[in-house]
Design brief:
It contains eleven helices and 14 strands. The chain is α/β, with parallel strands linked by helices and about 325 residues long. The strands form four sheets. A six-stranded parallel sheet has the order 3-2-1-4-5-7, sandwiched between helices. A three-stranded parallel sheet has the order 6-8-12. It starts with 5 loop residues before the first strand and ends with a helix. The chain binds nicotinamide-adenine-dinucleotide. Nicotinamide-adenine-dinucleotide binds next to α1 and β9.
């Protein structure tokens, strides 16, 4: 076991739930401190309540647990962010700058900061989006994460901190439900297929978006954090391509296993958000710098999701 003391913020969320477990397998449960603004029910290790806007509490936890690394996952996601833009800015950006400053003052160099495909906007090339490209996001979530990337880079250049980041595509997993993102449909559709054999989709049928299966997302995160510092050339945030598909394509894939499955399309405001994002992404920098390689394609994701959810429901 490696001698690190890791704090995870937003550990009760879709990714945090699974990442906490993966980090505990690597570093040992007592060395991984899960935190969230809300209490987490199923938690096999240390847990603290932390509102990331509370600087005093953050400093207290870092001192009490002698934290050496932070995975800063807490955020308000794209769809929810639009209901309260200023609060979203506070949680996603102001708390992040405060976190960077507290870490600098306390000598914590290594931080993981998740960014997102929501940093892309109307002027970004939609196909095979390059690593370095025009970023003019239109959601407050996208604006806050893009600015957050620049602050990460600033602290790396100015204070020699070691902040590492990926732009996650939409994440698909069976372990927990997503909460207020634009790509949530790709998880909901599996639950509906198994429960009701029918799904009402809030995106239009041909809306292609990049997605990533949870095991790939967790592996990417851990591999990036393990990579030699000298190999990293991108200190804003690495593109991660995942696998791109539309609601109609995932529906057809699920139908191969559940022939009675039906779908209807009722696009809402999230369809417009999705329209501003990339269809597919170039992640050659991640592949070249730290050896990133995708494992799960659409058919593998579909079969695994249906199998795992069926096991959970029986
Ligand atoms: N899930 C995705 O598809 C996706 C895609 C791209 C990027 N990301 C990024 O990955 C990270 C984790 O995403 P997720 O899907 O697990 O999100 P999530 O919404 O499921 O979880 C976020 C967690 O943050 C917590 N939180 C919110 N406000 C807080 C505050 N003030 N203080 C402390 N905790 C607070 C919530 O309680 C929640 O448990 C986020 O930063 C998100 O932007 C996620």
């Amino acid at each position: 076991m490696k001698k690190e003391r890791i704090l995870i913020t937003g550990a009760g969320g879709q990714i945090g739930t699974v990442l906490t477990q993966a980090l505990r397998e690597t570093y040992g449960a007592p060395a991984v401190i899960a935190s969230d603004i809300k209490r987490i029910d199923h938690n096999a290790g240390p847990f603290v309540v932390l509102d990331i806007l509370n600087r005093h509490r953050l400093e207290e936890i870092i001192d009490d647990y002698k934290i050496t690394q932070i995975y800063h996952l807490a955020a308000i996601l794209s769809a929810n962010g639009e209901w309260n833009p200023l609060k979203t800015w506070d949680v996603n950006l102001n708390a992040w700058i405060m976190m960077l400053e507290v870490c600098r003052l306390k000598g914590i160099r290594k931080i993981f900061y998740p960014s997102t495909i929501a940093v892309f906007g109307a002027t970004t090339p939609k196909e095979y989006t390059p690593q370095h490209t025009s970023l003019e996001p239109t959601t407050v979530y996208g604006i806050s994460k893009q600015t957050g990337e620049l602050w990460a880079n600033y602290y790396v250049q100015k204070y020699q901190m070691d902040i590492r980041s990926v732009r996650y595509p939409g994440i698909i997993g069976y372990q927990s439900m997503p909460q207020g993102g634009t790509t949530d449909y790709a998880v909901e559709i599996f639950h509906s297929a198994l429960k009701d054999q029918h799904y009402t989709c809030y995106l239009s049928r041909n809306k292609h978006l990049p997605m990533l299966y949870m095991p790939d997302a967790i592996r990417a995160t851990l591999e990036l954090m393990e990579a030699p510092e000298s190999s990293l050339s991108v200190r804003t945030s690495y593109n991660l391509a995942g696998i791109s598909f539309s609601p109609e394509e995932i529906f057809n894939e699920i139908k191969k296993s559940i022939p009675d499955f039906t779908i209807e399309y009722k696009p809402d405001f999230r369809d417009e958000i999705a329209s501003s994002w990339s269809h597919s992404i170039d992640d050659s920098c991640a592949r070249e710098d730290w050896g990133w390689k995708l494992e799960y394609d659409l058919s593998k994701i579909t079969l695994d999701m249906l199998e795992k959810l069926s096991q959970i429901n029986t």
